Amino acid sequence: MLGIETSCDETAAAIVDSDRHILSNVVHSQIAAHTPYGGVVPEIAARAHLEYLDAVIGRALTDAGITLKDIDGVAATGGPGLIGGVIVGVMTAKAIAASAGKKFVAVNHLEAHALTARLTAPAGAPLEFPYLLLLVSGGHCQLLDVEGVGRYRRLGTTIDDAAGEAFDKAAAMLGLGFPGGPALEKAATQGDPKRFQLPRPMLGRPNADFSFSGLKTALRRAAGATMLEDRAKADLAASFQAAITDVLVDRTGRAIDAFEEKHGSGKPLVLAGGVAANKSIRTALADLAERRGMALAVPPIGLCTDNAAMVAWAGIERLAVGPADDLDFAPRPRWPLDQAAAAAGAKA
Ligand code: KG4
Ligand code: ZN
After folding, report:
1. Are residues 270 and 232 located together in one domain of the fold?
2. Is the domain of 242 the same as that of 332?
3. How far is the CA of 97 from the centre of ligand 2 (A)?
4. How many angstroms separate the alpha carbon of residue 159 from the centre of ligand 2?
5. Which ligand 1 atom sits closest to the C-alpha of 10?
6. I need a labelling partner for 57 at 20 to 30 A (CA). Which of 3, 40, 173, 215 fits?
7. Residue 122 domain-assigned (yes or no)
8. Are residues 65 and 211 located together in one domain of the fold?
9. Do 294 and 338 lie in a common domain?
10. Among candidates 100, 105, 27, 24, which has minimal Cα distance to 66?
11. How much is the pLDDT for 348?
12. Is 212 in the same domain as 310?
């Protein structure tokens, strides 16, 4: 399966087979193009996808040592995401499918993140359904009951920013650069997480939803208007990271309660998305999983952040249980995973 990912600022293509081998995985990051603006500019992203995608696909085929003749299908992210980029990926995938006579699969980007841990599970220990997924990235912050391919129940979501977005905005506020997550984590290693008492929004609420905008405001207030010394920056970064970590642990704990009501105890907890790269968050969730008698599964960092191997794999999983998509599929800027939210018109 050829996978194509263009929904944000990575132009990516990969070849994956149904025995869970990643034959190639090419990611062209556009970070340099967006850095001057301090965030992803949709129009620049769409144009860059158009410019680089053909070469990235060519490289994925070459790295895998195959040609288009050897693939069974093309899977592209069909949404949710920045619509210009999604259109570029979907149109390219359709063109390849039509001209080479291959199957086309439009993959939900969230489903690709949700199924990645099944691709990367060790050979002797496959990851079976159901499992609880905490998906935390720049664009998404959700807790999902993953019951099977195409069967997702959303247990919690953010009512404002995504966790990665909060990291990015906090880093920008502290003048730490873009993308903010890794920069803030680095600064935090030198800081005292107890120096600033930042709020833990939603802590203790009965549902499993998230909110980060109050934390952002509190950070802005604590940072003040003056230039910060490095010491203060590091302490603020550490305090902010500690607050986010506490919120993720508390909300995930609530979701475990809801998940166990339906599925019982002892099922796996899976962490995915770019924020899963954060060591203090990984450690805190590993502790939580242990306390709750769950095994924690986290894909390798390079497959937590956006990539096309996860899209190819989701295409393989989809084709194993159902038909390919028609070539008249329309890209979807919004595409909630769970049917209840989709019916209610919720944003992804
Ligand atoms: O999954 P991803 O590559 O793209 C989206 O689908 O959004 O996630 C990128 C997000 C960014 O917000 C970035 O700041 C955050 O993940 N991130 C981190 C770390 N590495 C990346 N956040 C916290 N700590 C990190 N080490
Ligand atoms: Zn993503």
Report:
1. yes
2. no
3. 24
4. 18
5. 3
6. 40
7. no
8. no
9. no
10. 24
11. 55
12. no
| CATH assignment of the domain containing 27 | 3.30.420.40
Q: In this prediction, what percent of the chain has a pLDDT beyond 90? A: 87
320-327: average pLDDT = 98
Question: What does pLDDT average to over the chain?
Answer: 94
CA 305–ligand 1 middle distance (angstroms): 7
Task: State yes or no: pLDDT of 156 exceeds 70.
Answer: yes
DSSP structural state of residue 62:
H
Range of the domain at 205: 128-299
Q: Domain count of the chain?
A: 2
Helices 180-188 and 163-173: crossing angle, nearest 10°?
70
On whether both 139 and 75 belong to a single domain, the answer is no
In a domain, 121, yes or no: no
Backbone φ/ψ region at 131: left (φ over 0), alpha (ψ -120 to 50), beta: beta
Statement to judge: residues 150 and 234 lie in one domain: yes
The predicted model gives 154-174 an average pLDDT of: 95
Q: What is the pLDDT of residue 59?
A: 98
Atom 16, ligand 1: residue with shortest CA distance: 274
**From 74-78, 121-125, 246-250, the region with the lowest mean pLDDT:** 121-125
Category of 38 on φ-ψ map: left (φ > 0), alpha (ψ -120 to 50) or beta: left
Q: Cβ-count burial of 133 within 10 angstroms (0-12 exposed, 13-18 middle, 19+ buried)? A: buried
Averaged over 283-296, what is the pLDDT? 98
Ligand 1 pocket, Cβ-based, cut-off 6 angstroms: 8, 137-139, 164-165, 167-168, 179-182, 185, 273-275, 277-278, 305-306
For residue 277, the ligand 1 atom closest to its alpha carbon is 26
4 closest CA partner among 116, 87, 65, 64: 87
User: What is residue 32's predicted lDDT score, i.e. its pLDDT?
Assistant: 86
Residue nearest to atom 22 of ligand 1 (CA): 181
